[in-house]
From TrEMBL, chains A, B, C, D:
This is ATP-dependent 6-phosphofructokinase. Belongs to the phosphofructokinase type A (PFKA) family. ATP-dependent PFK group I subfamily. Prokaryotic clade 'B1' sub-subfamily. The keyword Cell membrane does not apply. The gene is pfkA. GO terms for molecular function: 6-phosphofructokinase activity. ADP binds at residues 25-29, 158, 189-191, 216, 218-220. Allosterically activated by ADP and other diphosphonucleosides, and allosterically inhibited by phosphoenolpyruvate. Pathway: Carbohydrate degradation; glycolysis; D-glyceraldehyde 3-phosphate and glycerone phosphate from D-glucose: step 3/4. ATP binds at residues 15, 76-77, 106-109. Mg(2+) binds at residue 107. Its EC number is 2.7.1.11. Keywords: Allosteric enzyme, ATP-binding, Cytoplasm, Glycolysis, Kinase, Magnesium, Metal-binding, Nucleotide-binding, Transferase. Homotetramer. It comes from Maccoyibacter intestinihominis. Residues 8-280 form the Phosphofructokinase domain.
Length: 324, 324, 324, 324
């Protein structure tokens, strides 16, 4: 029989992402609407182990839906990767009367949620990461904002690249997953994109491409580089040496993690937050919420963590067709 | 046997929407990549009837992906609603060697495409409207940008409403479809939303809601009004009179139609533009491209025009739960 | 001998303006750095009369410099326009140990500050209004943000006006002072601007201008209308009837009052806030801070209120030259 | 007797800056209004020497006021630093009937204008640089946009720094002049700023500052670093090692050069462009336009190049007071 949940906790874990506050707000307000009590667990699993637990009321999440970051903060926690840490975490939940927890984060955070579930705490994961690198969902909280932030920055770089007839390498986030690079590649009309999923980095090919385009009268050459594919600054120097075309690198860095969330991130994060509460009310545990095939759905965490996803081939193809 | 297409035309019709330029660029570049010739038809069906037809090369669509509006312009055209006009349009296509046309617009524009198809011109429609009011697709070109524009404007109104403890009515676009209002309702945490699909406008209920919230200490009251549900300015006067709370109306108007498209609008419009060309190459006609259940798909225009869609009930429900 | 000030109050009064929070933060932090205590007076003079007075510490103004609105809120107050109200206000200051007050607002708010000064409370005014309509200063807190907000909205309207070959009337704020309209007139390349300072509104002249421009091939006609010069919606109808050119009105309204302040508004508001504290420390009273001839200066309030300023003629002239 | 000018040229030189297009548009339109002919000289002095000279009409500068970069492009030109190059440049001007030139750029570009003037071409310089590092003017075209771009990026970095309780180093432009760093220092409430003008970089002092702030409960530590003051990435590693606080570097790079200009940049660049034409009409030569003490003024180029300016001491002081 499903356990009845009366008090739930909510935490954010791993890298922060715009829209996490919208999700927190939705968890708190949906829970209160449905008659539950809510506790905020600060700084992810680290704060759980240190009992940084606060009561949350409807007004505590006023005026946060439009804010970047996470009001609950986040942190890494090595202690929670040990069986002792996990057990202690579950005991602290029980001590505070928390019988359900909503964990907002990425795959690593979901593994923590799995462990809490094994120790009898009902857990629901929400996909929160700017990288879109969670296989069980087509949407993750923060990706839409991050990709717009990167795109707007690259639009600006492009203005000056065109004025100076320069080659620009822009390094975007996504060490293991090139979605930000792919989307910006299409949206910014980049001449070249370097993705971890399509790793066949051939500098000579890029050099040839720049030289050909220059002959055809193209006034700029934009290269979008997912972090991790080589080192943008030294790449710029080598490309300039080989082509004779002035080449500069920009590393967008952590600005991609912040900023007021886009409408999609606010709406989807809110929907997912409400759904997490509804799943807890149905007695569900060890589940993650996702968005697939046009619907908000949920999966067993074990099943979700075993899924794989790749770069959509059609978009990869048109990305190259359209920048000609 | 499918007709082989060698030269295609592209036009934008109906109200303009951000991302139309990205779609035009994709049609032009994908077609050229695949060995086709491309003609731009200016000012929609009106320009077709007046033979405002220009050659389009890859460089003609350089540096437009980030621009609002449509470089091909758009116009209303009563003449094309008549059988004579439709036949003349098809003849002009043939005269210019155009054997396939991509029409970017809404349901009304698709009806025109249907007629061209009946007269032997292969046609593919792309959904372009900020209102999201096309039943055959979950995505329309321009909605994502428009809803972010509206949301950012409402964020600003909210700042000042809070400072003055004021009630604000913001009128957004969407005469027949309340998607912009619903999304902003969630994303801006609006206290009340008035949608055409949920038309049970009861001013007394809103008045009571304002008075209750004021007692509970809420410092502002945001009402989002889809255009067509009453008249915002006079509504503001009546609500102020009934509640004693200072109430102001803002009408966002046409600014929602413009602006540089968001990343999603650029990427999806580009993908749809490329797909339209691929469908023409496969010999398809009388089809519209859509996005459904997580995939880019296509439907027969007749079938698409017969579809219905409504406001998602779960989001309507949580919109009210979360603004408490 | 100058009175020594130990505890200061800060309030915002009149219409709110972006940058007021930056000014509040500067007052609080500069005062604490210099060894003073600070009290926040909520909701302007209304809150003063109701003793809504709170202690303010350095951390109370953390994370507000980037926020629109005013954390101290603002309100109209008829009671403070009476001698009884003014005396009561001064007594409440004394009761709370407040011997100096920084008033952030417009000319009306400065008149209140004058009265407090007469009753022995040292007062310094800071110019806070989006309208730039304070004669003693070339800069007012909020104008720079408001004019950028209006300009960005008009850029978007222009995209769609061009696509539809439409005439657009955009109503911006500034009932008595046309600075927002003038700046946007130049910055948006508007074809016509209607200002209260240059009131010779001749609709026939505008109609002729539209017709001439249409003949010369101009694809849009942007009219910027300072609120108060006629009624934009009915003007649109008359112009459409007279020219045959589709004409639409947009009323930007209160969104111009909100939003995160620009860099200039944050830097100048911060500098003025610090300077207000330094003036109080020097024993000054009945002064307003201004920015003139490239410097932050201060004037006697009586002198400041007697000043006049007009629209800069050179910019009015080039505005018309450059839109040709 | 002043030479009568009939045909003027306009060029942009050095690093590009947002607002240069507004200045070009103003030069072209003001000149045409006053009965002059206008030629665009592409790619600065390099394009002059290669006779890349085009006719410019009023409609050639339509729809560019809102665009970043420069439609005339810009380039470095070593040849023009030689007497032979300078003489050849003047001869090319004469050959094309150009008797006056408006040069938009920085001090280096003004030196070129000086040489053209010596060879009998009337020249007027307009200050165009994002760095504000021209001593004869309080305003340079592009600074206002660049500083807002940097500030908005740092706002986003701050969101995530707060969520992770991290130290962030943000490198902004300004190798020889720290104005962007100083303004962002105030506007973003940075805990530390490193400026070339205040060079007493003491890493131990920063380390101590971080440790003290951490004890006082500050959740983030933002360091703004003008490019050239050390190497941000290695600085981050050393600071993390010394403090134990996670520290990350972001290098904003060329995005600060692009983007749609702010209202101030559009209005001031337009005014300066018009004024340059008026000065040529008055027969002036070897002058630069500036903005000083609240007015648009002009100086002899030799005099302007000899001026010095420094960081405003009061703002430097309050920058440190207010971040406490």
């Amino acid at each position: 029989m499903a356990k009845e949940v009366k008090t739930i906790g909510v935490l954010t874990s791993g890298g922060d992402a715009p829209g996490m506050n919208a999700a927190i707000r939705a968890v708190v307000r949906q829970a209160i609407t449905k008659g539950l009590e809510v506790k905020g667990i600060k700084r992810g699993y680290a704060g759980l182990l240190q009992e940084e637990i606060i009561d949350m009321h409807a007004q505590d999440v006023s005026d946060i839906i439009q804010r970047g970051g996470t009001i609950l903060q986040t942190a890494r926690c090595m202690d929670f990767t040990t069986p002792e840490g996990q057990q202690k975490g579950a005991e602290i939940c029980k001590k505070h009367g928390i019988d359900g927890v909503v964990v907002i984060g990425g795959d690593g955070s979901f593994k923590g949620a799995q462990k809490l579930a094994e120790h009898g705490i009902n857990t629901i994961g929400l996909p929160g990461t700017i990288d879109l690198d969670i296989a069980s969902t087509e949407y993750t909280i923060g990706f839409d904002t991050a990709v717009n932030t990167a795109m707007e920055a690259i639009d600006k770089v492009r203005d000056t690249s065109t004025s100076h007839e320069r080659c620009s390498i822009i390094e975007v986030m996504g060490r293991g997953a090139g979605y930000i690079a792919l989307w910006c590649g299409i949206a910014n009309g980049a001449e070249d994109i370097l993705l971890p999923e399509k790793y066949n980095y051939d500098e000579q090919m890029i050099v040839n491409h720049i030289i050909e385009n220059r002959k055809r009268g193209k006034k700029h050459h934009i290269i979008i580089n997912a972090e991790g594919i080589g080192h943008s600054t030294s790449m710029a120097k080598r490309i300039e040496a080989a082509t004779g075309v002035e080449t500069r690198a920009t590393i967008l860095g952590h600005m991609q993690r912040g900023g007021s969330p886009t409408c999609k991130d606010r709406v989807y994060a809110s929907t997912m937050g409400a759904k997490a509460v509804d799943l807890l009310l149905e007695g569900k545990t060890n589940r993650v919420v996702g968005y697939r095939h046009g619907e908000f759905v949920d999966f067993d965490i074990d099943e979700a963590l075993a899924m794989q996803k790749g770069i959509p081939e059609y978009q990869w193809e048109i990305c190259r067709n359209l920048s000609k």
